[in-house]
Potassium binding protein Kbp (Arsenophonus nasoniae), 173 residues
Amino acid sequence: MTLRALDLLSNSLRLRFISSKLSDGGYMGLFDFLKSAGDKLWDPAAATKDDKEKKLKEHLDSLGIKGADQVNVNVDDNGKVTVSGEGIVADMKNKILVALGNVAGVEKVEDHIAGGSVDVQHYTVVAGDTLSAIAKKVYGDANLYQQIFEANKPMLKDPNKIYPGQVLIIPKR
């Protein structure tokens, strides 16, 4: 097993990704998210482990991400979500991981989905960011914001509605 760690730093940006290459060629990865940012799916004081897992599955189902119905979601008491499953293509896997992480109360997502590499860049939105500004930072061309928007559908429904702490998928140019 080989270990790979990548820290992405840009202004206030920080997303940590640690992955382990598995014998089947897939990856097991651990992604860090901002626990206080994201969709509020449950009351932190009242939700049980089962409530959180049910709400996360409903959230994935509501987004209509292909293959999301094939994953298992487990939540621990510290805000870590472990997701597992098989037969999910890489780009859908990336969307599932980001959709789960962009939920208030989730601090880490551990990827145990078989197959498909998650070798993409991620960006954590900071106050004042727009998709155009992010495209300018990562691609050098603000007009490429549409690529970022498309890579983050269906989690993003409007290119003007992003929020600080949200993690976005940044596709290769």
